[in-house]
Structure formats: C-alpha cells, structure tokens
Design a protein that fits this description.
Luciferase, domain 3, binds adenosine monophosphate, 30% helix, five-stranded antiparallel β-sheet, GMP Synthetase, Chain A, domain 3, 25 strands
C-alpha cells in the first residue's frame, strides 16, 4: 500500500464530493471534487516536466486555496514541497534556491522579475507564478501555473511512495547564519496527523477557521493537515485580523493560533463568549502562551486554550489533553508514540535523566522525528544522541503528573509573533553596515509579539548611525519580522571571561527601557 500522504488524506475525503472543502472570506467555495481535480491538473503538469525523483518544488506565494492545492499536487506527483515565508527578500531567496536547488519555483507575479534572475542563474529551469489576487478564471486565482495546468487532465494516479520518502522540507532560520532544511517524510507527517486527529477528537461536522500562514509547520502540517485528514471544511483567511476572526468564529468549531493571535483577540472589544459559542477547541502553539493570556481567555470566553509544543524538525511532540485538565504554563503530555526525556550533562561530561521537578534538555524520539537536515549530515549527527534521540534545543521540566513546562531554550532563538528569529543571522547583517563595530541581538518581552527583536550596537565614534536609519537599512535586506523593532547604541557589549557576549545582562538592562512598539 502506498504511504503517499495525499492518498491518506484522499481516503478520508467525504463521499459527497460536492461538499465544501475550502471557503474564502469573499465567499468563494472549493468543493472536495474541485480540490481533487485542480490538484490532479497541477500534478499532471509537474509530471510532464520530466523531473528526476525527489525534485524540490519551492513555493513562495501568498496564502490562497490554490496554494494549498499546490501542496497537495506536489505530494500527489511524488515531489518534495518546499514552502518559503512570503516575507523573505532576495538575499534570503538566493540562499534557499542555492541550497535546495529546486527544479521548480513558484512565486507571486509581483516578484517574478527578481526571482527569475536568481532562479535561472542557479539552474532552476521551471518558474511559474501563482497570483493571490482573484482575477479572471471566474474570479479564481490566476498566474502561469494555473494557466498551464488548465490544459492537463483533471484525473491523476497518485504516485506510490514509501513511508521514509521525503515529502516536505521546512527551512528553519539559521543559527549560524545558514538556514537548515528540515526533511520530513510522508511517514513523519502522516503519523503526526493521525495522532493529532485522535488526540484532539477531530469529528464529523468540524469546521476549521484557518488564519495561520501556509508556509510554516503550524498552518500547513498541524492546521491544514488536520482538516484534510478529517475531511473537514476550512474557512481560509488570508491572514489573521482580529475583527475578521471574530466575524467567522461562530461558523467554526476549531481555531488554531500563535499566542499573539490570542492576545489580539482579547484586545478586541467584539470578542466574547458569544463569538465563541460554536467553538469546541482553541489550540495555541509555536511560542509560549503567557499564563495571563491563558487565564484571561478562560475568564472572557469560558474556553480553556489547549497548548501544544513541537517544531519543524519533529512536528508535534506534546499536547495538553482534550478531555482532562489543561494546565496553563505547560505544554501538556508527550503525544502517543513520542518518547520525550529530559537530560542534564554533568561536569564529568556524562548525561543523566531528570526526574519530576528537575530542569533538563528536551530530547525526543518517535515516528514523527525528521530524516535530518538537507545536505548537512554532520550537523544532523551533532543534533542526535548516540541512542537516537533528537536534541530539541529547548529546556523543560516535568511536574509530578508528567505535564511538561518549557522553561527556556539552550539554542539562541527569539520567537516574535510566532516566527523564529535567530540572532546570529541578524547580527551578521548588522555587522555589515558601515559604522557598526559589533552588535548583539536579543529578545525583549513584548505584550503582543511575545518577544521583540532588539539590537544593541557598538558604533564607530565618527559613524552617523541613527536608530531609524538602521531599521530602514535592515528592511531592505531581510524579512520584516526579523528586522529589529528597536535599536540601542552602547559603548561596549558586556562579555564574560571567555569573551562571550552576556546576552542575559543585555536582556535585563534593556527590558525596562523598551519603548512602546507597534
Ligand atoms: P518552529 O520550528 O518554527 O515551529 O519553532 C519551534 C520552536 O518554537 C520550538 O523549538 C520551541 O522553542 C518553540 N515552541 C513551539 N511551541 C511552543 C510552546 N507551546 N511553548 C514554548 N515554545 C514553543
């Protein structure tokens, strides 16, 4: 039997193919039959290109039903889907294309000019566009991908795949300036989707309000896959907007978001228990949900947010229970099939496992754990223990009943609005600015974003750098969510005896000084 993830989804599509699969905010309606036929046409197009097995299909397009259909088509045709954040700029895209060497790249028409230059130079032979603006085609999505696919048959025999064949590559931001491509197989993704379907009690009649982006594990592999595996309708919002979410909530039963969404919902006067009357499950993840948000949400709506924890490399690892106590400040219990342990390394270099109440590095094993980093065998080997556990880079603590709390990160990572920002990458860009001697990038607690990217810069004495000037310069070279929200100038950076910048001191010092940020 094939392990192709699409075949698994298709086996759960409703018998009534005229039922709605995806509805958009402006009332467009995609039935399960539409999704099957449209993904078949695109899969036929990809198959006609004569690509070698395992070819990557890289995608940087705005969210739309067609973008999800493109993901399904890639799976069906047996190729590897590589989604990229829409905020990435040319230098970032150049890196991804150079590293992943995709055979096909699909971009927004507005980016075609610069993407084409990069892609063709790097040897990507097939470039298509997919437009987010409804135009022509009966008001449906346009661009060269759909224009070409229209000429292909709407039936396609899904390609056979083994469980460990690659299905998706998710690039994490780079800890050392280089992003790493986490390789997930059909089996990895399917096992996680099935576990979550059971654990969260997906049921007949569920409607998912989908406000997350499609290029990240949360929106694609947790939210969309959940609905696809359950044959459930999705209401697709192009992005999160509190007022629109409030308007759509009564028509939905499940909502998933990053903590920032919940903070923003609570800030919206229209958001109350009446708006949530048909919701059976609110899920939060990708970043820590503050205890205050958890408590205020319960007070305002009567709903207890279910917090879960996972990452691109492993998909979901833990979740608060569906039908037992959900504990604020914890990410719940290890999911069925996931072995999760906490380890500490003593001064003798030996590792030991932690008991309840002890803090240790989170290590995991399971059918959901990825196949390694794309073309980085050594980096992959470093991230696994000798007995095959993946070192997550997160630090946690179990309580007496086995609920896990994330207490910190051993990896240098900032999570801002649910997006990961690796300080090293931002520091290398800052250090290239004329007049910057050195820089340190830290995350400062922020009510809306969770953490706000903040830069501390030591500048040359004659340099005419200003906070606003640095921010403007950064905006031209990196994705907006990575651009420091504020910049401080310092005479020097605090260092320990080994010369390492003491970011904890910087965080303490600048937390109090944080200005009100957008
Ligand atoms: P990503 O690969 O972008 O999903 O980011 C994964 C990282 O986000 C994890 O390694 C954690 O550091 C963090 N993360 C995800 N979910 C949670 C959560 N519920 N609480 C705290 N941190 C989380």
């Amino acid at each position: 039997m094939t392990a192709n993830l699409y075949a698994l989804f298709a086996s759960h599509f409703p018998a009534d193919k005229t039922a709605c699969c995806i509805e958009t905010r402006d009332g467009q309606y995609y039935t399960w039959g539409d999704v099957e036929r449209a993904s078949a046409r695109i899969a036929n197009l990809f198959s006609s290109l004569g690509l070698p097995p395992g070819s990557r299909i890289a995608v940087q397009v705005e969210k739309s039903p067609e973008a999800l259909i493109l993901y399904l088509a890639t799976l069906r045709a047996g190729f590897v889907y590589l989604p990229l954040n829409t905020a990435y700029r040319s230098a970032e895209i150049e890196y991804f294309i150079g590293d992943a060497e995709p055979a096909v790249f699909i971009c927004s028409p507005k980016n075609f000019g610069w993407v084409a230059q990069i892609a063709f130079k790097a040897g990507t032979r097939h470039l298509f566009t997919l437009d987010e603006i409804s135009s022509g085609n009966q008001g449906r999505n346009s661009g060269s991908l759909l224009a070409r696919a229209m000429h292909f048959p709407d039936h396609f025999e899904t390609v056979e795949k083994q469980a460990d064949d690659l299905a998706v590559i998710l690039y994490t931001s780079g800890t050392t300036g280089r992003s790493k491509g986490a390789m997930l197989s059909h089996g990895n993704i399917a096992s996680n989707a099935k576990v979550l379907q059971q654990y969260w009690h997906w049921q007949a009649g569920d409607v998912l309000l989908h406000a997350l982006p499609l290029f990240h594990i949360h929106g694609l592999l947790v939210a969309a896959n959940g609905a696809l595996l359950n044959g459930s309708k999705m209401i697709f919002l192009p992005k999160f907007e509190a007022a629109e979410v409030c308007r759509q909530l009564p028509r939905s039963t499940i909502f998933m978001g990053v903590p920032t969404y919940y903070v923003r919902l609570l800030a919206d006067k229209g958001f109350d228990s009446h708006a949530c009357r048909n919701i059976r499950l609110f899920v939060s993840g990708s970043a820590p949900l503050l205890a205050d948000t958890f408590a205020e949400f319960a007070m305002r709506t009567g709903h207890t947010i279910l917090e879960r924890y996972g990452m691109s490399e492993t998909a979901m690892l833990t979740s608060n229970p569906y039908d037992r106590e959900r504990r604020g400040g914890t990410v719940g219990l290890p999911l069925p099939g996931v072995s999760l342990r906490l380890a500490v390394t003593g001064s003798d270099g030996l590792s030991s496992l932690c008991g309840a109440g002890e803090i240790g590095d989170i290590q995991v094993k399971g059918p959901n754990v990825f196949q390694g980093y794309w073309r980085m065998p050594e980096k992959t080997a470093e991230e696994f223990t000798e007995d095959g556990y993946f070192k997550t880079g997160d630090v946690g603590k179990f309580d007496s009943e086995g609920y896990l709390a994330i207490v910190g990160r051993s990896k240098d990572l900032i999570i801002s609005g649910g997006y990961n920002v690796y300080p090293k990458e931002i520091e290398s860009v800052l250090d290239e600015i004329d007049g910057v001697l050195e820089s340190a990038v830290i995350g400062i607690p922020h009510a809306d974003f969770g953490e706000a990217v903040t830069a501390v810069i030591v500048k040359r004495s004659d340099a005419k750098l200003t906070t606003a000037g640095v921010i403007e310069l950064m905006k031209t070279s990196i994705a907006n969510f990575k651009v420091p929200k504020q910049v401080f100038f310092a005479d020097e950076l605090p260092r320990n005896t080994m010369g390492k910048v003491q970011k904890n001191l910087l965080r303490e010092h600048y937390s109090g000084q944080a200005a009100v940020m957008p």
